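Example 3.
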Amino acid sequence: MGRYHRPLALADALATLAGGPATVVAGGTDVFPARLGRPFAEDVLDITGITALKGIGLDGGWLRIGALATWSELAQAPLPPWLDGIRRAAREVGGVQIQNAGTVVGNLCNASPAADGVPSLLALDAEVELASSAGLRRIPVAEFVLGNRRTARRPEELATALLIPEPGPGARSSFEKLGARRYLVISIAMAAAVLEPAADGTVGRIRVAVGACGPVARRLPALEAALRGLPLGPDLAGTVTPAHLDGLSPIDDVRGTAEYRREAALVLVRRAIRTLTEQA
Amino acid sequence: MIAKPAIPDVLREPGPGIGKPLSRVDGPLKVTGQARYAAEFNVPGLVHGYIVSSTITKGRITRIDTAAALRRPGVLHVFTHENRPHVAWFDRKWKDEDAPSGSPFRPLYDDRIVHAMQPVALVVAETFEAAREGARLVQVEYEAEPHETDLAARRHEAFTPGKEKGGFEPPPKPRGDPDRALAEAAVKVDVEYVQPTEHHNPMEMHGSTVVYNDDGTLTVHDKTQGAPNSHSWVCSVFGLSKSAVRVISPFVGGAFGSGLRPQHQLFMAVMAALQLKRSVRVELSRPQMFTFGHRPPTIQRVALGAAPDGTLQAMIHEAVQESSQFENYVEIVVNWSGQQYRCDNVRLDYKLARLDVFTPLDMRAPGAATGVPAIEMAMDELAHALRMDPVELRLRNYTDRDPNQDKPFSSKELRACFAQGAERFGWSRRNPQPRSMREGRQLIGWGVASGVWDAMQGQADARATLGIDGHLVVASATADIGTGTYTVMSQIAAGTLGLPIGNVTFKLGDSALPMAPIEGGSWTVSSVGSAVLAACERVRGRLYKLAAKMEGAPLGKAKPADMVLTDGHVALAADPARRVPIAEVMRSGGVLAIEEEARSVPYYVKRAQHTLATHSAVFAEVRVDEDLGTVQVSRIVSAVAAGRIINPKTAGSQVMGGVVMGIGMALEEETFMDHGLGRYMNHDLAEYHVPVNADIGSIDVIFVDEHDEVVNPLGAKGVGEIGIVGVPAAIANAVFHATGVRVRELPITLDKVLAGLSRRSAA
């Protein structure tokens, strides 16, 4: 068993990481089950004492989600409608006990292909704030998650927050999750979408992402480009074609076949877009 | 000590309790956390065992190195097949009440590995954590042999078992010429259904806390559906005298059949306690809950032939089911088909295939939950082929005699189940055309199926002790696995002696109490309830005699036959205002307590002349997402005929729970086997899906009036299993009605539905 660190100041946490790698623990909802029955051979950095990492709030055109903010806090925070999609995702991450303990940033750092928060973060153009003794850097979520359980975080870095840019006026978002049962289930596929309408009633900017259909969740740039400028109405969802989902690489597993996932992802994307048009 | 069967007064004049929807008497203990379960009993000096599971499926252990584990601080001992204490040799010594024929599994017996994750060592340590860490450090080397775990691969090498297990008779001989009748039938279906392995997965995992007493005796807290079963098994396996062991199990956190046989953690904990002379607890992990009995996978062929008017002319039901290499577990899934419908040309055939798995084990409605869905889905396919309403088809072939045994049913109100269920559901508004109902992208379907289960009874004892303070204690060694045993037994006792329910304490789950059989098969109300009734009737008889002899004759010259017990008084039946408090009767007779014990014995002769069964008609509404294939069961109506219902609330909850489990069976439950490794893949509750609350819609339970004087003195048949039996088929039939897609492989997961929808639109 390695050492267990529980600093109260961010600087101490960064100093610990500068001294050598450690497994970072916040809610522990992914870390703990993965090690059931096995001791931690490595050092552990428990960041739950660092109050500076708590909280969710809008600040200068950005929504900041601190590294200790839980899914329940996100679901309950008084936030504008353009965050409805990720708030819906917040209620689909495990059960309520998991939502009370698990953090949004932790879900991202765990980098599961089926992480329920990631499609929304991608669609929201979120960025990750990484701190180390050398200073701060920010990188887009799309560049942060590299593969199954792999991220761009360096061993000496701590992910301290997620930062989401405030979109244009009238923006809204949606989220769809499919599992083999209605709740408490690992996703077969997910879709998230964020719309910034143009003043003339057409699609200004739209960002769409799909999760659990490949090693990492992915944006669908071809679809986003195709939808731009189209009228916002009930027909918009129907313009999504299977070819728009070509970038996905789903696999067969016990939860569903690759073929089923591909079909399901198409349906979920259409529904996520339909939700956006119905919110008008 | 044997009670003579007679129609009890309690049923002629129901007292306070019988038939009332009382809440569970043990409810407050459970919701306040005061009810303690097997692995929650703590004693000073308790040590902990952790089981090491094999990493191969078949072969032998070539070497076990326990040195690293033993060096770990806190580790006391590592038990393996090389150093285990002496245990029984004969197979019969290892048999428990629920054992099928064969050679029961013996933990740590020798170097043979016969199934995946077989227990190969027990590490005992001062703390649970040290034991678990020690278990990780045990090094085991194996010589693996090829295994086979795929039922489809062995189905053609299956054999016909004999009578291997109590309660499960081999199929009857064929009637008529079913093959020819099938060939000549105007309308026919001939299809195959496949069902997967399922695991019981009660919330409480199997655990045993063995307390090593100062005098060397053992007090065993076990998770079990029969404290006497665990008791006699432990005594037999370890060669202990009956008085050296006591098994206690007052609360069980669900079992569904998993507690019908003593599981290996009990062996481990007793073995360690005896050798180390310490109190020991062994509790299984959730993955280890997948290392013993399960509902076996099954492949079934059902062929039905009918005349254009729906009259059945041929029925062939053949099943192949998994068993282990060492025991012949049977559940003869086909017999209910021949019992449920009138048909002159019938062949029922049941075979077993030996695979390298642990022996299957009764799981809620064993056999019926597997076989009845097959016949009931086939009947729906036949109704569709005939263009006939599926309820009408079932009534067309209804039978009041059991064709398998050519005997009348003791009672069978299945017609009333169909009528009342259909009325409540609104079945008459059903358009028979598949895909005829939709709301947006949701296809809506209505399906129906019937259910059937046996109304069994065993011998049981009960002791009733009435104190002069008016408090009655009734005791029997039976179990309450969450079913309501405490409550209904208290009701029967209170009803018989005219006492408020609050004056009754029922004790169970203790091998020191009067004998009761394992709690399963829906027979506990029948077996134990009849014994409680008999014991309380004896107490009542004693009270009447004392009342008749009272000084001053407050009840005049009344004889016992002229008396009744009401509201804590002995009263005149003809003039209930003339009454004497029970306490006064006892004081006058000079007794402080009246204690009576009685054994209930089934009406063997009458039972042998009849077939005894519970029945149900289940109606289901599903909503199928046309784009995703997801199935939501929005509505279930289950109309049940099970004789007298002692407590409509607990019985209703039992059926409701059965419906939920049936929804799981239809849509979600499946243990996946990796045939390459021979190991179950999804051995946790994240990946082994049971329904969550959000999966469940409305469940409406109806109890149909049914009078039965053959089943037992109470007229009650028991409802533990019947709730699940008709549900999977009703849902599968509703999915077909919604979509036009027939999924014959349970569970009906979304990808199977969507594949069917795609094929359909391509066609």
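Chain A touches chain B at residues 37-39, 178, 180-186, 188, 254, 256-257, 260, 263-264, 267-268 (CB under 8 Å). Residues 86 and 240 of chain A are 22 Å apart (CA to CA).
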